[in-house]
Write a structure and sequence with these properties.
129 residues; two-stranded antiparallel sheet
C-alpha cells in the first residue's frame, strides 16, 4: 500500500527564496519566528483534537507524538507524525475502507491559515522597531 501524506504545493518558491535571501537577517529571523508560532499553534490544535483510543488497550496516542520539523533556517515547518510507530496517523486522517476519516491536521491548518499572515506581519513589525 502506498504511503499517503497531506501536502501543499507552493508555486514560485525559487523566486521567493531569492527574495528572502536579499532580506536583512533580523527580518528573516522575524519571519522564522512567525512560522514557528503558527507551526506550534497547528501542532497544539492537532494534539487537542486528534481522536484518542480510551479503551485502555493502547497507551500510545497520536496527541502525544505530533511533531514539528523545521527547514530552510526555520522558514519552512512540517507538522505531523514522523515516527514509524505513528504510521496509523494517515489512517486516522484520511480513513480506510472500514474506518471513516477523522481529519485533524487539515482542519488545524485551515484554522491557522487566517492568522498566519498577521503573525508574520506582527513579527516583522516588531523587528523593525
Amino acid at each position: 500500500m502506498a504511503r499517503r501524506r497531506a501536502s501543499v504545493t507552493v508555486n514560485g518558491i525559487a523566486r521567493l527564496k531569492r527574495r528572502l535571501e536579499d532580506l536583512p537577517d533580523e527580518i528573516r529571523q522575524a519571519l522564522a519566528k512567525g512560522v514557528q508560532k503558527s507551526a506550534e499553534a497547528i501542532a497544539e490544535d492537532v494534539a487537542r483534537n486528534v481522536p484518542v483510543d480510551i479503551s485502555g488497550r493502547d497507551s500510545h496516542h497520536l496527541k502525544d507524538t505530533v511533531d514539528i520539523r523545521y527547514r530552510e533556517d526555520g522558514l519552512i515547518a512540517e507538522i505531523g507524525w514522523f515516527d514509524q510507530q505513528d504510521y496509523y496517523a494517515a489512517f486516522v486522517e484520511y480513513g480506510t475502507r472500514r474506518q471513516a476519516a477523522q481529519p485533524t491536521l487539515g482542519p488545524a491548518l485551515q484554522r491557522e491559515r487566517g492568522r498566519y499572515a498577521s503573525r508574520l506581519t506582527d513579527e516583522v513589525r516588531q523587528a523593525l522597531r
